[in-house]
Amino acid sequence: MRLSRYFLPVLKEAPSDAQIASHQLMLRAGMIRQEAAGIYAWLPLGLRVLNRIEQIVREEMDRAGAIELLMPTLQLADLWRESGRYDAYGPEMLRITDRHERELLYGPTNEEMITEIFRGSVKSYKDLPKNLYHVQWKFRDERRPRFGVMRGREFLMKDAYSFDLDADGARKSYNRMFVAYLNLFSRMGLKAVPMRADTGPIGGDLSHEFIVLAETGESAVFCHKDLVEMDAPGPDVDWYGDLQALVDQRTALYAATEEMHDEAAFSAVPEGDRLSARGIEVGHIFSFGTKYSEPMRALVTGPDGKDVPVQMGSYGVGVSRLLGAIIEASHDDAGIIWPESVAPFDVGIINMRQGDAACDAACEAAYKALTAAGKTVLYDDTDARGGAKFATMDLIGLPWQMIIGPKGIAEGVVEIKNRATGERSTASLDSVLAGLIQSKAG
Amino acid sequence: MRLSRYFLPVLKEAPSDAQIASHQLMLRAGMIRQEAAGIYAWLPLGLRVLNRIEQIVREEMDRAGAIELLMPTLQLADLWRESGRYDAYGPEMLRITDRHERELLYGPTNEEMITEIFRGSVKSYKDLPKNLYHVQWKFRDERRPRFGVMRGREFLMKDAYSFDLDADGARKSYNRMFVAYLNLFSRMGLKAVPMRADTGPIGGDLSHEFIVLAETGESAVFCHKDLVEMDAPGPDVDWYGDLQALVDQRTALYAATEEMHDEAAFSAVPEGDRLSARGIEVGHIFSFGTKYSEPMRALVTGPDGKDVPVQMGSYGVGVSRLLGAIIEASHDDAGIIWPESVAPFDVGIINMRQGDAACDAACEAAYKALTAAGKTVLYDDTDARGGAKFATMDLIGLPWQMIIGPKGIAEGVVEIKNRATGERSTASLDSVLAGLIQSKAG
């Protein structure tokens, strides 16, 4: 993409109501624009990152055997009356009346609707297990929206729902999502720690939040420090086998959010291993048995010919919130530092003297070669000053910057800078291109 | 995808309120499920087609120089008061009040919001032309939703917005979208005819609808029959050059929707060339000058230093509606016939005797080989009877069916069927696979 044709409205200063780094940086980098309290437009740069995060989530769900569908944003109030949650949900639910005075709501989550879809067609244990998920915009009418996309009102969530005949199957489905979550957050460069969590309005008795540690986290968390450094299992696990050992390895160590914190149990952790910090919730998984299937009559016939309510769980990832969490975990004074897996472009090219024939030719050659090799490139072909171009590239945080100026070109070299390490080196255009093309990202 | 693990709730009969073929077939093929009047869940098979159509639209927008962003579904009422449309829009606008009594609405279109985004950052003619688009769920509170996704309430639309300094630039932007639309509908196997159209609540004086001819079309249309057979220009046009000739070639011939129909002008068309038919609107483009930029003060500084309201146009494609239009144009008594470019899977494999070692092995080998070659495959590995498997495959309309049965395997052959032509042939597994892998689709 040529910057001269792009739409990247960077700001010199963030508005004063942006209190945390990720909110400030997303506004300054031209990624989002507030359209109402807690409601944002995703500008082109922000949308590119959102799409990449969504795609990683999708790939890991598919790998774990979940099937994608897409439920609508609006739901019937009557559906929520079947579960009893319509009255219980409170003012965070956005309630809507249409032209025929029918009561609708903007879905904050989809347990009721997926149960309705399931009961409409699945009748036998032979069709189980099933895990159905979607990635859709949700709305929660937060009393005080803040921190940009971290606590917005209209937000993008991936929510998966599992269906099993019995508690043993439900536990296996829960474990599959537990392991898939370890992998998907890891692919985004995040250390997300699973912690015992309160089940809140979703319900059930088994629940984990996946927490990214960050000073600006909204809640206090307590865990064994080994959990933070534990590697994700990776894709080559036996998804339909027994994943319990992988889960136990994590749940054996103390980890709890504030609501579930047990000071006595925590003090049994050796003092040097105790970590008390602040965290950002990026995922939340629940096993809630028949909480919805029983009142909503989602029954399956077992091998014994008897009908039983299906065992369910639900599994959420805050897709739009993840941008904030990643930036909180990865930025410096100059701007964002994107992990390669979610960066909006792989490489930025800075033309230090736009209009200079040799510089233009070298930049064009680099742009074409990288694009042809499948790399995504943002080419700053504007007539801004070099200093302003450097500042913008650092702000938007692309992993690699190629700097092409008249002095270097005269000497036959270009400069390459790694945004994360700040390391710079000079080499011939061809060897810099070869290095970028061989790197795995992109 | 193995059907035994998929979620494909096909129905024997469509509900009686489904009046047209596309609505009936989408319900029967397990593509959609109604969640409220005019509000549908997209089941896995339907979502796959929706995603492919969306991706074709996106590629053609990008090719024509448009930049993707994503605006939220909910908008502030006050924004629509700036243009004067809040009161004018009528009962089709879904109006919402949040917990703090702020007035919101579920966006039926985005002229106001994109104008607000534009005026917030673009100030100079040097940044023009710009074309910004998004693909987002919209809501129009139709009095009588019907025909499935053809006239739903919550629907997916691609809407692009162009910004130019003057009328000449605006015309060029309009022409780029005109040509992009010819290409994108053509890629989906549709013959979409551009017709002079009424501008309705969007406004402006230049507007074309893109119409697919179908007996079940909602409105009467009139055109020169040559327009239906004219080929799309294809991707290799000079996008930043002069596209007027390509546009003139189409607009020189008579074509108008009912609202714009001029019987006298139509009767000047030679009688044998007159086509009066019914049509489905799949796209609608508008040039409306300063209708929004003037009241909303979206000004740009021209080369002469003077501020002028920016010239705008908007360009819609009914993404979810397109599924209905394609099915209306391409089905038979047995079911849907997907064009290869939008099919949910490229190939279906029918195992005629699940559990037979030789059949299972041949099916597995075919499934693996096709998947490894980048084809998408739905493998019917269930224990349903052969007749039921044939009926399902015909119903869901995948372009190719591979039929693998014990008799053929004993003779060293499998059967391949083309869904569109009904043509069947038998050959060795290897040669059938080689043929499928070499075909361009997928």
Automatic annotation (TrEMBL), chains A, B:
Its job: Catalyzes the attachment of proline to tRNA(Pro) in a two-step reaction: proline is first activated by ATP to form Pro-AMP and then transferred to the acceptor end of tRNA(Pro).
Gene transcribed to yield this protein: proS
HAMAP family, sorted: Pro_tRNA_synth_type2
GO CC annotation, single: cytosol
One of the record's GO molecular function terms: proline-tRNA ligase activity
Organism of this sequence: Caulobacter henricii
Record has NAD as a keyword: no
Xref: NCBIfam families: PRK12325.1, proS_fam_II
Protein name (record): Proline--tRNA ligase
Keywords: Aminoacyl-tRNA synthetase, ATP-binding, Cytoplasm, Ligase, Nucleotide-binding, Protein biosynthesis
Subcellular location: Cytoplasm
The UniProt record lists the keyword Aminoacyl-tRNA synthetase: yes
Lineage: Bacteria, Pseudomonadati, Pseudomonadota, Alphaproteobacteria, Caulobacterales
